[in-house]
User: Which sequence fits this backbone?
């Protein structure tokens, strides 16, 4: 179970960091609505640029905390807890604009991964 926990931490962290750095301005299949970049995506959800920046900073901070959690276990639970809340919001916003499954699926998988991290973190000693 330790290996699965570590793999999930790395997967979630790298996915979030990639989405909020390298893929920030790229047009991907996973964008909500008709968005071609992260700014357009947040606008599709009715959210402004400032909200996007705040969400991005917190998500990247949580991703980094998760990575540091590989060394300092006490960081895992708070980082994955906050990330879970962001992923619940992400799924909600995709559903709120009637996105099909393809753009919604990554957020849903990240949500399941974050919940799994919380569960496994409590199990692994």
Assistant:
């Amino acid at each position: 179970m330790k290996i699965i926990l570590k793999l999930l931490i790395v997967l979630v962290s790298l996915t979030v960091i990639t989405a909020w750095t390298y893929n920030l301005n790229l047009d991907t299949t996973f964008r909500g609505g008709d968005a071609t970049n992260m700014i357009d995506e947040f606008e599709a959800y009715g959210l402004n640029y400032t909200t996007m920046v705040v969400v991005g900073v917190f998500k990247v901070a949580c991703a980094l905390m998760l990575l540091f959690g590989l060394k300092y276990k006490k960081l895992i639970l708070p980082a994955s807890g906050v990330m879970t809340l962001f992923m619940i919001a992400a799924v909600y916003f995709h559903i709120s604009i009637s996105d099909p499954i393809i753009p919604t699926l990554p957020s849903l998988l990240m949500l399941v991964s974050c919940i799994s991290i919380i569960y496994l973190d409590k199990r692994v000693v």
Summary: The chain has a mean pLDDT of 96. Residues 2-24+33-123 form one domain. The chain has five helices and no strands. The helical segments are 2-20, 38-44, 49-69, 76-96, 101-123.
